Amino acid sequence: MSVTTERLASLIQRELALIVNTSIKDKSFGYINLTEVKVTKDLSFATVYYSILADDEETMKKAQNALDDTKATIRMELAKKIRNVRKIPDLVFKFDEALAYGNHIDEILKTLK
Fold this sequence. Notes:
With 113 residues, the protein is of the alpha+beta class. It is 53% helix and 18% strand. It has a single domain (3-112), classed as GMP Synthetase, Chain A, domain 3 (2-Layer Sandwich). A three-stranded mixed sheet has the order 1-2-3. A hairpin with a 5-residue loop joins strand 1 (33-39) and strand 2. The N and C termini lie far apart (41 Å). The mean pLDDT is 88.
């Protein structure tokens, strides 16, 4: 990523961290933690990686559906916060599986002892 996309990704992540948890009304899955934001070179899409503390599939689907349902509202709030960008990128939310993978490896290592 270039300096511009890295700065925009950092700014989006910082602002979205505040916006996401206030915009979503359904709190059955708990707090959503944004782990990383990647912005395309043409600044048209921002892939937002998130994690939650739940392990079951149903809760992860609830969180994904809640994010997809409020995507337009979240983007509009982001546009209000970030004024120096001509076009706010479209947001794509993806579950970050790195934490779950790390926990899986940790469990395997514990069973080996």
